[in-house]
Amino acid sequence: MAFAELALGQIRSLRQTAIPRNYEIWYVYATGYNSQLNQVINETLARNGKLTEADLEQIYETYLSHLKTTDRIDKVGARVIGEIDDVVQLIGDALGMSAAFNASLSGATERLSKALDRDQVMTVVDSLVKTTHEMRDTTKALEDRLVLSKAEISNLQQSLEAIRAESLTDPLTGLGNRKYFDHSLEMAVATALETSEPLSLLMFDIDHFKSFNDSYGHLTGDQVLRLVGMSLKQSIKGQDITARYGGEEFAVVLPNTALRQALTVADHIRRAVMSKELKKKSTGEILGRVTISVGVSMLKPGDDTDSLIERADACLYAAKRGGRNRVVCEADPEYVAETRGQVA
Q1: Following DSSP, what letter does each residue of 317-340 receive, concatenated?
Q2: 249-255 and 199-206 strand pairing
Q3: pTM above the 0.70 mark?
Q4: Is 229 in contact with 173 (CB distance < 8 Å)?
Q5: What would the 3-class secondary structure string for 4-64 be?
Q6: What is the pLDDT of residues 267-314, one digit of tens each?
Q7: Residue numbers annotated as active site
Q8: Which tens digits make up the pLDDT trace of 308-339?
Q9: Sequence-distant (≥ 6) Cβ neighbours of residue 160 within 8 angstroms
């Protein structure tokens, strides 16, 4: 309700229409969960003092629209094609004007050669000056339109990049989503096998996550997921790949990293998550600390993505069976390659 009141307050203060799109924008803004949306709104308000209908539409389409990605790409693509058609039309007009100008020059040359007095020469010259001015105006119009089109196409290109990034991003944590993980792991495995460089995979699972949802509600559960996501972002740098694998499970791909180094990274992340205290935003109540269990596997000759994930998953469930809040790799005695234990 507090978020709802803040959203409606913003709509009133900025004198915007109270339609669902605007409410959703300001509700998400009030929660603070979408940092990019908040940044764009803050920068636009600081620059212009208001949000126009075009601003709101752009913000909604970029950060909140529920249209299918393919539909949004088609929409942007249609705008690109429209821009190109306009430019082609203008270039066609300019070419026509250029042909007419050339014909005018040829005609002027012929008329000048036949001119008998000063008045006839001045008539030809006046005609040339008028045609030259028209050509200059047409060229200037084309130049201005090309500059605008370049800017518009650049903006549309950025929109396509934003759509692509959104399609590969988990909106809750800001990490890569499962689609991003699958593609990135496939590429990383192919590169590692080709170059004979080491590659390790970490699979994380939040301990007792279901109890957070059951005890404190899904908003607190979302807060737990964001906390783990933030810890991963702070701990992983460079070429390493982070993603939300699904539910309360996360994954990290570590190129050029052997098993011992991967264990060090995994334990560093485990400690980073455990060091953060979870607080309920609505009441300020301290809910304790979040812990994670981690499974670690390293790429072997003949491996593919499935076998690498399978071993990391088996290590993860061995860690959960062994008491949780720990790291297990395929070299540890706790690792059980056969059947994964079903631990909630």
Answers
A1: HHHHHTTSSSEEETTSTT---SSP
A2: antiparallel
A3: no
A4: yes
A5: HHHHHHHHHHCCCCCCHHHHHHHHHHHHCCCHHHHHHHHHHHHHHCCCCHHHHHHHHHHHC
A6: 999 999 998 877 776 677 777 889 999 999 999 998 999 999 999 999
A7: 248
A8: 999 999 999 999 998 999 999 988 887 754 34
A9: 73, 76
